[in-house]
Write a structure and sequence with these properties.
By secondary structure, the protein is of the alpha/beta class. It is built from 18 helices and 15 strands. It has helices at 37-45, 74-82, 113-123, 138-149, 152-199, 205-217, 219-233, 245-257, 264-293, 298-318, 325-340, 342-388, 431-434, 437-454, 471-485, 497-500, 527-538, 545-555, and strands at residues 2-10, 13-19, 23-29, 61-68, 90-97, 102-106, 109-110, 124-128, 395-402, 414-421, 429-430, 459-463, 489-493, 505-513, 518-524.
Length: 560
């Protein structure tokens, strides 16, 4: 429940502090005094967008604070606890600066507009005088019926399920459309993998094959040259008359031994000759080992060249170096594995679609049952209220038209439209084809009153919803609003004395004009002041004993 409202430098209000109570509180005042400023300020503090034009002239910022008693408000308390705001009270504050900046606070902790909007929905519901215009839209009919039936959450779950189902269907359709193309790609990858797998190339094998190819191709030449080198270095006992390096060095060593001189230079020379002889012998040993591995084998050469040719050919196909074919095989195996799962993915999506469709059907049927059940009750109650509001003989009909299976929507299995018959025996027709502007206002008021009775929101605001009515009809409106107020808190801006007379509390808005500024003020009226204000609302510049008596007579049936 709203207990206190503080407004600073907002429009024509310089400073305003209002205490509010349970029951029906009406706000009245002269035209232009600013009766709707409280409603506008409450809308702003609960998250409405605004620009700095609403800041009072000469001020650098506007500030609105609203205090709510949430002790009995389970929804608001739960929201505060879930979002880690102190929950034993609820103070919402909004600050607007001339530089365009806006700040919001919940219990003195910074909050976003989205947060105060969400919290505001649990605290307060505003009914505007212009709501009857929206009655011409079918989606509003659906929302009103679901609100009345208490099925708003069910309708929201249905919409979420439909969106999930629709997204899965689109994905499934997309996969099926690409299935043939992906299968062709799958076949190509399988063929490429088969080629690479059959090749079975090992790490470092290409380098070794290239080396083997060189040796095998040049084997005869290598052996011939090797033998020539061997012959030059060592006759090896094959031809005793041949002159070779080792024999010549050995002969030089023998000649050096004949000198019999201990000179250091000579001894160094002999040592070098002996070392040279040893190195040539070691070189010959290494050469011999090398030549022993050289094989003249045309068949093996052919096999090596064939394998290298296969590797080079596949490397050209995949536009990589032969050494990169092993990594290419790994990449293709991963891609093949992913494509290999497409059928499995389609199956999973199909299962998801089936499950989402089943859930949608269940939710839609539950929502349809709720709508059908409550539509009759809504028809009866709105028709009754329309009779009370000066439309005798009229009847209200909520028409539910089943949709084609191919046209299922996120809003359920039926289209909902409000129809009206203004005279007995007349077939119900759509509102825009039958109802006048005044009738739409009364129908809207009838609906708002019924929804207000059923709502769990602790505070209801009605902003001049009684425009266009008067007399006995206005008195009925006052009685209905007072009835709602007896169950909670109702705040109503009104021009109708019949409505104001039914209030538990009466606030009067006045405007003081000076040369320097204009300032609106709000005051709570005493019983006698309330009589005077209702007399003023009844008409006439001068209050007479007769109008005052009439005003008091209007208030008399209502307890003081």
């Amino acid at each position: 429940m709203l207990t206190h409202l503080s407004i600073k430098n907002f429009a024509v209000v310089r400073l305003l502090d209002i205490e509010l109570n349970t029951g029906l509180t009406v706000i009245t005042g002269e035209t232009g005094a600013g009766k709707s400023i409280m409603i506008d300020a409450l809308g702003l503090v609960l998250g409405d967008r605004a620009d700095n034009s609403i800041i009072r002239d000469g001020a650098d910022r506007a500030e609105i604070s609203a205090v709510f008693d949430v002790a009995q408000d389970t929804a608001a308390s739960t929201w505060l606890e879930e979002h880690e705001f102190q929950s034993d009270e609820c103070i919402i504050r909004r600050i607007l600066s001339t530089d365009g900046r806006s700040k919001a606070f919940i219990n003195d902790s910074p909050a976003t507009l989205q947060q105060i909007r969400a919290l505001g929905e649990t605290l307060l519901d505003i009914h505007s005088q212009h709501e009857h215009q929206s009655l011409l839209k079918k989606h509003v009919h659906r929302q009103l019926l679901d609100d009345y039936a208490g099925s708003s959450d069910l309708a929201q779950n249905l919409a979420f399920t439909y969106q999930s189902w629709s997204a899965a269907e689109k994905r499934l359709s997309h996969l099926k459309q690409q299935l043939e193309q992906q299968r062709q790609q799958h076949e190509l990858l399988g063929y490429q993998l088969d080629e690479l797998t059959k090749l079975d190339l090992q790490e470092g094998e290409v380098e070794q094959l290239e080396l083997d190819q060189t040796r095998l191709a040049d084997a005869e030449q290598i052996l011939t040259v090797g033998q020539q080198i061997s012959s030059l270095c060592s006759a090896d006992g094959v031809d005793d008359t041949a002159i070779d390096c080792i024999s010549l060095i050995a002969q030089a060593i023998r000649f050096s031994d004949q000198l019999k001189d201990e000179d250091l230079n000579l001894q160094n020379c002999i040592g070098l000759l002996e070392s040279a002889k040893i190195q040539i012998e070691e070189a010959m040993s290494s050469l011999q080992q090398y030549l022993e591995r050289i094989e003249v084998n045309p068949e093996r050469l052919q096999r090596v060249e064939q394998r290298l040719g296969d590797a080079y050919q596949l490397a050209r196909k995949h536009r990589v170096q032969p050494q990169e074919l092993i990594q290419t095989l790994k990449l293709l195996q991963e891609e093949y594995s992913q494509l290999d799962n497409i059928d499995e993915e389609i199956q999973k999506l199909q299962t998801q679609c089936d499950n989402e469709k089943k859930r949608y059907t269940e939710l839609a049927e539950s929502l349809s049952d709720s709508r059908k059940k409550c539509a009759q009750q809504l028809n009866q109650q709105i028709s009754t209220n329309m009779h009370l509001l000066g439309m005798p003989g009229s009847s209200f009909v909520t028409q539910l038209t089943p949709l084609d299976q191919a046209k299922l929507s996120p809003y359920g299995k039926e289209e909902i439209e409000f129809l009206i018959s203004t005279n007995p025996g007349q077939a119900p027709r759509p509102l825009q084809k039958v109802a006048s502007g005044g009738e739409l206002s009364r129908i809207s008021l009838a609906i708002q009153v019924i929804l207000a009775i059923k709502t769990d929101t602790p505070t209801l605001l009605f902003d001049e919803v009684d425009v266009g009515i008067g007399g006995a009809t206005a008195e009925v409106v006052g009685q209905l609003l007072r009835k709602i107020g007896e169950q909670g808190q109702v705040i109503c801006v009104t021009h109708q004395p019949q409505v104001a007379a039914k209030a538990h509390h009466h606030l009067y808005v006045s405007k003081n004009i000076s040369r320097e500024s204009t300032d609106s003020q709000v005051a709570a009226l005493s019983y006698q002041e309330k009589i005077a204000e209702i007399a003023r609302m009844l008409g006439g510049i001068k209050l007479t004993d007769q109008t005052l008596a009439h005003a008091e007579e209007m208030i008399a049936p209502v307890s003081r």
